[in-house]
Design brief:
Layout lengths: L16 H8 L3 H10 L15 E2 L7 E11 L16 H6 L5 E7 L8 E3 L1 H9 L2 E6 L2 E2 L2 H4 L5 E4 L1 E2 L7 E5 L3 E3 L2 E3 L4 E5 L2 E5 L7 H19 L6 H9 L2
Parallel strand pairs: 2-3, 3-5, 4-6, 5-7, 6-8
Antiparallel strand pairs: 1-7, 2-9, 2-12, 10-11, 12-13
Amino acid sequence: MNTRPPDNLSLQSVLNEDEFRSLQALDSCAVANAVERFHVQLRNEGHTVDELTCHFPEMPPVLGYAMTLKVRSGAPPTKGKVFFENTDWWSALQAVPSPRILVIQDMDRTPGAGALVGDVHAAILQALGCVGVVTNGAVRDLPRIRPRGFQMYSRNLSVSHAYSHLIHIGGAVQVGGLEIVPGDLLHGDLHGIVRVPKEVASRIPATVAALRQKEDEIIAYCQSPGFTLDGLRGLLAGE
């Protein structure tokens, strides 16, 4: 698992509208490739690596600022209310820049005993400016949610809420092998989730364009009648 200190700027939006749209239009693999070029983190950090399913892979990429929760679902809460009766965290969610992505860590020994987000709560989250949810637990009601354009990532599906309840609002969570704190900029598509470092976020689209130009040259050369190993080595040496 990745570990890192809290980001003091985590609750500040870092992209203007044009920069945001340009970054959102990219696929997550291209974003990850571009991040590597800036050497701001190790290459095995900053993206999901454990099993998470993107339930609507046909959807365009999502981009948003993270809000985090920790929950349990395998047993009744020792005090307080179940997840769907507790609304205190909505104010914390709206303190994060929009659009928002809710990231939920299920703290049970075996996560996913109950579905943390279903049809009704997906509608609530959309009304609160969320474009998706990411959890190591469960979700449900996929056919009813799919037409809304609300993306969902989870470890599994469950037919029941079980005893889903909040145990912590905000702070660092671990989902899919990735550490996420409130305000982190997340980019996701069918391949997974990338945490985009804020110091380079506005430079990612231009970097992707340059990388794709080089990749297109290599692909075109591999498909050309004049292909040779020496020629390929020469192209790769100039990368």
